[in-house]
Structure formats: structure tokens, C-alpha cells
Design goal:
- GO terms for molecular function: saccharopine dehydrogenase (NAD+, L-lysine-forming) activity.
- Keywords: Amino-acid biosynthesis, Disulfide bond, Lysine biosynthesis, NAD, Oxidoreductase.
- Belongs to the AlaDH/PNT family.
- It comes from Leucosporidium creatinivorum.
- With 394 residues, this protein is of the alpha/beta class.
- The protein has two domains: 5-135 and 333-393, Rossmann fold, CATH 3.40.50.720; 138-330, Rossmann fold (3-Layer(aba) Sandwich).
- The chain has eleven helices and twelve strands.
- The protein has helices at 23-31, 48-53, 104-113, 138-157, 175-193, 207-218, 231-234, 265-271, 332-347, 350-357, 376-393; strands spanning 5-8, 35-39, 57-59, 71-74, 90-93, 119-122, 199-202, 226-229, 248-251, 279-282, 307-309, 320-322.
- It has a six-stranded parallel β-sheet with strand order 3-2-1-4-5-6.
- Strand 7 (199-202), helix 6 and strand 8 form a beta-alpha-beta unit.
- Helix 3 (104-113) packs across helix 11.
Length: 394
Amino acid sequence: MSATNLWLRCETKEFEHRSALTPTTAKKLMDAGFKITVERDPQRIFKDEEFEQVGATLAPHNSWPTAPLDQVIIGLKELPENDTSPLPHTHIMFAHCYKQQGGWKEVLQRWQDGQPTSMLYDLEFLQDDKGRRVAAFGYHAGFAGAAVGALALGEQVGSEGEKGRLGEIKPYENEGKLVSYVKGELTKVEAKLGRKPRALVIGALGRCGRGAVDFFKAAGLNDEDIVKWDMAETAKGGPFNEILEVDIFVNCIYLTSKIPSFVSPESIAAAGEKRSLRVVVDVSCDTTNPNNPIPIYSVNTTFDKPTVDVPGTTAGPPLTVVSIDHLPTLLPREASEAFSTDLLPSLLTLPQAIADRNPRQGKPIAASEAGTGPERVWREAEALFWQKLGESQA
């Protein structure tokens, strides 16, 4: 079996500093026989030289579109929206187009136009034999989301008339420095409110939720100040008045179908002056999903403008939403190392999956044909690609 060529593309999403591969995992892949090419990327947390030092070949910035078709292009975030050119390569990435997000058909059309050689292995849907994602940024997303929510609360509560809003936030070198800074800000909030702030986390038993809870504890909140909900607590269906009684609400669920709203414009209006809720952090960030259970905002926020005000709020304190869709880049080095390490075992099985796919290039397979073996994860992702491509063409 010939060596598999992995090409780490640059990230073009603004403020994105993470990487799908790290120098550590790149070295392990090369030791296993892979050929690794790394595009130069000034915004990646790992310097180009770190990859060069472990033996990777460096390529010019954003040069992947002209790479040979045997190169498997690996990255994280979605490609630029203003490009509709065909995608004839195999891509491993988060494409954000399988749950009918805004523009999903146009995104998948690029792979349709790239046939018969194109393929998308969507990182969000690489699953083990128990249906669990093989690699996810969930923990660091929850951890960072709780941190940004706390910072947003501090900026608001600490300002005259609560008119202050959180300004641009930049990556932290490590978790310790992030926790230390936010802990100081929450101490100021406690002094202002005359009590410790309270938070509610939905999805608390998942990786994302655990990250949020762990951050709040590390930042000084007592256990009784953190309301931890999961499926059992939300089974009765919302909206939930309990959300309006805390200062920060962090949504960490993985949305698969329509569910009753957790909070709504009507429930907010009904609470009036009694509402304590000031900051909503939608880590799940299903902003353009028609089933979003937090229908009180309609735009993604960004690292330079982390919050958006909820419109129509006339009673009680101002209410803001954090809806950044790449929160783990707040801790890019740690988040990248954790994710890439989890992805590594599956990447090591990619050569067999590619070899299996080559004879049927451009021909769909069904999930029932995924078979067994460690490379099954890629065949299931291949089957899902064809399923979603068919849905977009229907």
C-alpha cells in the first residue's frame, strides 16, 4: 500500500488559531509512513518551523487548491463563503452542512462539482462503533464558553447602567492564565451583586458541559452556584423559568432534532423585572438551524465582537448572547493537542480506507456496506457523504 499524503491546509476563518494536526501528531503519522505537507499559516498557534523541525514538508500559504489530487486535505473550519469552485480533493474538516445549516446545499454543491474524485469526511460525524465521536473539541468549547460568558457578565455588571459590552478577546497561552484572569473578574461581579454569580449548564453530562462546569468551579463558583442539567431535567420540555433565575446560561447540547425552546422571547418578557439572566452562551451555536432551541438571536458573534444584545428586552437587566462558533481557539494550543491526539488512531487507519475507496471512485456506498474493522469510521463517513449529497440534490 502506497503512503498516504496528508496536506494540512491553512485556516482562513478570522481569529482561528487551532490546527487539525500538531507537530506531535504529524511526527507520529510520518513515523507510521504518512507523507505530511503543511501550508505556511501565520495565524496558526504552531509556528511553521515547529512542523519543519519534525520533518514535515512546508508549502506556500493557501496553496492546497492546486495540490495533486492524491493529497488528502485536512483542516478544521469551513472554507471561504465567496468561493464556489469545485472541490475535487478528499477533504477532512468540519463542513457545517449536514444539518441543513444556512447555505448547506451550496456548500455540498462544490463536492458534487468535484466528482468523481471528491470526498468529504466530516469531522463532526466520525464515530466509533458505539456512535461516539472519535475526536471533538467539546470539552474546550464548554470550558472556553463558560469563560467568555463570565467575562461578558463582568463587563456588563461592572459598567454604569450595565451598558458595557465585552470587547475583543484574544487567545490565552494556557488554561491557568485564563482561569486566573476570569477568577479576578468574577470577584468584582460578586462584590457588585452582593453574592456569587450563578450559572446553569444544559448538557452537563457531556464533554462540552463538563468543560463548562469545570471552568466555573476553577474560577471560584461554589458547587451550589452551578445548576447542572442534562436530558432528565429537560425531558418535560421548555421554556424553563429556572434559566431566567441564574446570571449565565450555557447551552452545551448536541442538537439532532426539533425540541421545545429552552428560553424564548415570550418567557423573557413574562419574567419582567424578576429576571436575573444577563448572559446566554450558546456553545452549541446552531444559529442558522431551524430547530435552534434558543430562538432569541440570529447572528454568530466573533472574537472581536463576542456578544449581541437580545432585541426587544424592555424589562430587567440587559440580556446578551455569546454565539462564537469556534470557542476552543481561546485556548488553541491545548485544544489542538487534545483534538489531534484523539483523532490520531483513526487517521492511522485512513490508508486502508482510501485503498478500499479507490476502486469505486465516484460511486456511492450505503451505511450497511461500511463493514467492520478500525477503518470502518471512514467508510461510514463516506456513506454519510453520499447520503447528504443526495439530499442536497433532491
